Amino acid sequence: MAARSGGTESRASPGADLAVHVNEATGTVEVADVDAVLDLPDGDVLGLWAATRTQRVRHHGRMVESRLRFAFYGRVSTKEYQDPVSSRRWQIDFAAELVAGHGRIVAEYFDVGYSREVAWTDRPAAARLLAAITDSDRGFDAIVVGEYARAFHGSQAIHLAPLLHRHGVQMWLPEVDGPVDLTNPTHQALLMLLGAHSKQEVQRARFRTTAAMQAQAREQGRHLGGRPPYGYRVVDAGPHPNSAHAAWGRRLHRLTPDPQTAPWVAWIFTQRLEGHSIARIARMLNETGVPCPSAVDRTRNPHRPGEAWQLRTVAAILANPRYTGRQVWNRQHTPLRRTDDVVPGVTGLRKLTPSPRWAISDKPAHEALVSESDFVAAQAVSARRRPTDGARRTYLLVGLLRCGSCGRSMESQLSHGHAAYRCRHGHTSAHPVGIRLAPNLYLREDVILARALARLHTITSRDTTILEEIARLRQDPNAVGMVTFLRAHNLTIECRTTSVSLEPDHENPIITRSASDSPERRVRIPRQRVQQQKEKRGILND
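^ thats the sequence. predicted structure below, dont judge the formating
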């Protein structure tokens, strides 16, 4: 038997016990006599002996080197309700058992607090592993996981396989008992089955959790976590009804009115029922110096400025049915969609849930700050001004106007009985009147249309159909025809006090200006696809 040490070889009797020894200096795995291992200085003798004892090999009395270098990947969903240390331990143990005799784990990537549904590029450790795979000097030959569901969700493994193959990296799974071979129909079927099972596990857990929380909200009125609404604070409500959870020290919680903020909630509803607008309510709160919700609770709102009341803040309070004393759950949900990443996951944006799908407690769960009748009445209040003659106004240019000073969309505004538009450059009536950087821009609709029609002579096109549309509008100027033309060709009107200009409305406009601040600037609009025809149309400013 031969064992390498310092560039020399040592021999032992052919029948001697052999133990695998990792030489960290050279990065090789060596087989040595057990007695030689025990003589190593400055090491964990017992731990090293125990580790090498389980890796004894016999191969005709010769040294056996492990050649493959593995990168281990693991994951744990949460750090609050799971033990990342023990989870990592069993995963890496399973992986080490799988690669024993074939190589050794030289790198480790472990994500804590990320669901299997999350794309690999959105998991920090997995993203680093993806970057390492594409690096020619990565230092490993294969990746290994302790369990499919710890690393992959759905078809993620199948999407990862081509990237690994392109860079010459193997993928080892315990369920395959070795490396994955996607040219093998059995391996393909197994990966699809594992992906479906991993996805089904998530769906089943989500369904059971959602059903349980709906029942707890409806039948028990239980507070299911999250920040308390403005006007309330969370207090202890006794031990958990589940004896096992109670033994672990878990307790229930409920909402109780906050003596500092609860009166202001009642005041907001009173003002709304008197017919005041949301903006006026917010402005009065700011002028009175009442701290806004994010200023009251900085611990839960470090990401918010906490400077002043906003329109959305007041609107959210007025729309929250929990102020009636009933527990309401599932007012928001997150529709999921698949991402387009290399190893895809799912993502989604939180949206409001239609009220018929809310889970409302059968009876009051906490002290009410407003009666149910007053809450319902407040939802019907509208402070929007209506014409004195009762006529319904139509604003033709909604969505087509931009402010030439700040770039904001202009909002509709009735002016002396005429349709008009304004831009307040970001100022809202929720804030006290102060110094403004620019005066408000007010323009009547008929003035804007007349100026826009006067700009039609600057537009030409390579399409004769568009030239004919322009000629008709110039011969017979009319508001409906002009608005139809603007919307058909994705044009907007950029407004200033004394002039307007026609601008392309798309993400990457190609604009050529003859003068940076001149209303006579030239605008080139890329070709548009007409819905009824397949040919492409282009519009150019002359």
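Confidence is low (pLDDT under 50) at residues 1-38, 54-65, 506-542.
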